[in-house]
Amino acid sequence: MGHTPTTTRGRATRGRILDAAAELIQRHGVAAVTLDDVERAAGVGRSQLYHYFDDRDDLVRSVVHATVDTVLAAQEPLLLHVDTVTGIDHWFDAIVANGTRQDAVGGCAIGSLAAQLGGRDDLARQAFVDAFARWEAPLIAGLRRMQESGDLLPNVNVTELADLTMAAIQGGLLLAQVRRSPDQLRLALRGARAALDDALTPLPT
After folding, report:
1. CB atoms within 10 A of CB 111
2. Which of 115, 116, 182, 200 lies 20 to 30 A from 24 at CA?
3. Which residues does UniProt assign to DNA binding (predicted)?
4. Cβ–Cβ contacts within 10 Å for residue 196, how many?
5. Which tens digits make up the pLDDT trace of 133-155?
């Protein structure tokens, strides 16, 4: 790994390089972005870039980790409350609202990178394994709390339910991006919500 900056100026320079690389990759795709492109966009030279990153692959993997941090930080306030049906509904609504603000063309930043890099090397693949595990962990924990409180049926596999939900989110975001319609995301989340309904403990009659 490249040099980890210890000064405010160094952290700012490294952050500027990462931001420039992330924006270029989002716009043009990983394969089309060169180190020359990143240097021009960040206003740095090759020696500065290599001071903070070992090579292009190291820079790209760092972009992956930074993208994950950004996505999860934006959702963290909602993920703290996915231990109730209402909290999960609010989370779903926020995902749809975010897609609508992007005119349903942005897709998922993590999913987009994973499609381009998931099979590139073991380090990149593991970065995405870790990313989705970090994203899914609060949902698994929330569903487990719902089960412990009696809201979910005791025989429900909460990990499988969380996996289904994440698959619906990723698939819905991809379809919304391709078809330019947030309705595709709403439909996918409606399916995840139906699976949650089936897992709920029936109310006494």
Report:
1. 20
2. 182
3. 34-53
4. 20
5. 988 999 999 999 999 999 999 99
